Amino acid sequence: SQLTSRHIHPRPSHQRAIQRYEANNNKLFPRREAKSFYDFGANDNKEWLVDEIIAHRWINSMDLEFQVCWTLGEATWEPMSSCKDLEALDSYLELWGVGKPRDLPRHR
Fold it and tell me: Which one of 8, 22, 82, 100 is separated from 107 by 20 to 30 angstroms, measured CA to CA?
């Protein structure tokens, strides 16, 4: 056949190993959840390094949040109280051409 002439086997040997999916059996394997993750012993209080501040938003007329990009690549919204001493905040304010966070534009 055309498949074998191209060294493609119509019935691969691993095909016999393919089985139908069956959900976890809690009677046989209790407390084995498919979506449980191992924490690798990471300390929950560990501090992550800030890469930069990439955005801001006003929650109301007084409360300001910043979108912080962490060195691990994740971005989260953090309150002004958490960002006030960051060098990244100084750089962000400089990019906007303002001296204080309260002077940032209140765009929607």
Answer: 82
In angstroms, rounded to a whole number, what is the distance separating the alpha carbons of residues 97 and 31? 55
pLDDT in tens, 63-87: 999 999 998 888 999 999 999 999 9
What pLDDT score does 69 carry?
A: 92
- Kindly state the tokens that stand for 38: 């191992």
Task: Show the tokens assigned to 31.
Answer: 């407390």
Q: For residue 27, what are its two tokens?
A: 């009677």
For residues 56 and 66, is the Cβ–Cβ distance under 8 A?
yes
Evaluate whether 51 touches 69 at the Cβ level (below 8 Å): yes
Among residues 22, 24, 20, the alpha carbon closest in space to that of 35 is found at 24
Among left, alpha and beta (phi > 0; psi -120 to 50; other), residue 83 is alpha
Q: Is the pLDDT of residue 99 over 80?
A: yes
The whole-angstrom separation of Cα 27 and Cα 25 is 5
Instruction: Give the angle subtended at the CA of 51 by the CAs of 63 and 67, to the nearest 5°.
Output: 25
Query: What pLDDT shows up at residue 73?
Result: 81
